[in-house]
Amino acid sequence: MKMYRLMMMLVAVAALAVTGCKQSGGGSVDTASLESSFASADAAAKSGVDKAVAAIKSADYAGALAELKSLGDKVKLTPEQERAVKDVMAQLEKMIASLTQQAGEAASKAADDAGKAVGDLQKSLKK
Questions:
Q1: Domain span at residue 102?
Q2: What are the distances in angstroms from CA 99 to CA 3, 52, 74, 81?
Q3: pTM for the complete prediction?
Q4: Using one digit for the tens of pLDDT, what is the confidence trace for 49-60?
Q5: What are phi and psi of 122, to 5 degrees?
Q6: How many domains does the chain have?
Q7: From the centroid of its chain, how far is CA 22?
Q8: Please, are residues 1 and 108 in contact by the beta-carbon 8 Å criterion?
Q9: Angle (deg, nearest 10), helices 61-74 and 79-126
Q10: Which helix or strand (DSSP H or E) is residue 78 part of?
């Protein structure tokens, strides 16, 4: 029973270490065209874009994506604005996919490391 608790604690620590680590997505989202296409937009549209850009800068890619998706429902977009929104949304989706893959790989590595640590611990307890 003690071994089981120890093993579960090691797995929990490894999982927290993985999820607590801030990882770079290996790229960034370019918001320049988005910001310039909404520079002279009405207040509602500008507010939505500002929220999305702030979310991107704080690495809240899912929040930015949701804000941009709802932007088209809230205001009428020009063709230039639609292109800019679609471009940034594509970049966000790519960034989210990359981060998801990295998190999966890190979690797999953490699980492997935790399994090795448990094996090493069991060996040392037998001595």
A1: 2-126
A2: 34, 18, 29, 27
A3: 0.64
A4: 999 999 999 999
A5: -65, -40
A6: 1
A7: 9
A8: no
A9: 160
A10: none
